[in-house]
Amino acid sequence: MELWYKEIGFYNNPFSIKPSAYTDDLFGIDTTKVLEDISAGSILFIEGEFGKGKTSILKKIINLFGGKKKVVYYSCNRADNSIHVESLLKGGRTFLQKLFGITPDEMIFLLDEVTELSEEDSEALLNEYQKHIKSIVMVGPSYKKAKIANGLKEQIKDKVVKLGDLKEEDAVELIRKRIGETELLSNDLIKLIFKKSKKNPRLLLKNCEEVCRYAVSHGYDKVTEDHIKKAL
Amino acid sequence: MWYEKLDLDENPFEDAENTKLIGYDDVLDEAFYRVDSGGILVIEAKKGQGKTAILKQIINKYQGHGKVAYVDSTLVVEPNIENVIIQKYGIMGRLFKKMPKEMILLIDDIETLSEKNNERIKFFYDQNYIKSIIFTTSNLKKIKFSEGLKQRIGKTIKLKELTEGDAVEMINARIPNNQILTEEIIKDVFKLSKKNPKEFMKNSEILVKYAVENNIELKKEDIKDILSGKEIDKEEPKVENPSEKKEEPKTEPKEEKKEENEKKKEEVEEKKEEEPKEEIKIEQEEKPIKVVYEDIAEKYY
After folding, report:
1. Is the N end or the C end of chain B the one with fewer CB atoms within 10 Å?
2. Using only C-alpha atoms, what is the Rg of chain A?
3. With a CB-CB cutoff of 8 Å, which residues 52-71 of chain B face chain A?
């Protein structure tokens, strides 16, 4: 059986939920401001529930700020105990964008899945901040619930960016960017699917994929309301 | 070998590379789709329903260039996923700790997933070092997927029970011109095997082998007896697989007893045969898994 998206001319799954796939579609956030803040050397916290674009925006930052040599990415979920900021900066860990031996200045530190940061880690980060670390971007599900030392919070101040809910127009734009102007899925139907997607970008993508796959595999050129009912 | 009498080169009840999976066409379609489109699939099924067999079909289809990493969770309780995919990437991975791209990760029979592995998998998947993932498990609720990973799962499938019709098709697919197991007998055996495919295959093999080796026609009434090791006519039932004879010293005295008084032997044999049967089960479960793992290893190291 031919893959549904190949039948409409795509080599890869246009609705891929991987953050690395398509990074030019971030909604509900002023990415320009975020990037400016980073360039200016701030500490920010980006909060958002699952599927809203946290990892996507980190990917964008990594891409824009020069990849390996400038950005350190660390996911807090993997922490055994503490973060070992210094060794991260020197590239001690295997997992990360490695820094090549020396400790350059103006590093951008990305912390993913931040729910709790120990005093020790917060101190280490603050220590390196404005020395080797130019900017720190923390990403997590909730700023309020995150246990971060006061010292850090003071530096963050009001630079808490919330990944907003997707709006209907955004939804249409997001899907159109993915599949272009193909007649397979009309804008009205995108809105219908959107209603079933709890305003969550990832869920919207998943649902569109299911619907399109259903329609094409049953031999249809266009998605209909019936398909949506049956597929979702 | 007994199956040679049926004009077969190999034991029809052992899974070969091109064994067609009956009754799971839609599951396979879904699995192939998830692999192609870069998704994550979870297949839930009880033991012996065919989880590993499904993954084998995927390995068959996508193997090559170190692309598929298969992890048998029963062999290694909590492998470090990073090591798994770096190892699979071969020399590049091990020498330079270079990350592979677009690997297909198959984790078979998973029971738990540590926080670290949750995160590693999510990270690798996001970065596209891993293109797609298929998990199989017998108990979905027990696995602790992190919220992030859970949200990335494309679909969860529960394997449906096979039907009697599937059972008949399975036998006919493996034994061309099958005349040994009638449809009625197949359905009975299927029920006796509690509709479990693995059990069903094992029991079918016992019956067919018995019929072939003793040159008799199987009758419905005799099935239970044959499967439990009781003899039904003058010749002795041989319950064990040929490979077992090498490992089980207990089988040798049985062969010598062929010509002796049968009634006395029945009770003795039943007791002895209970033990080897359990061992047969374990061995048969282990073999298919190990073979796959080793095959891949041979090809890519």
Report:
1. C
2. 20
3. none
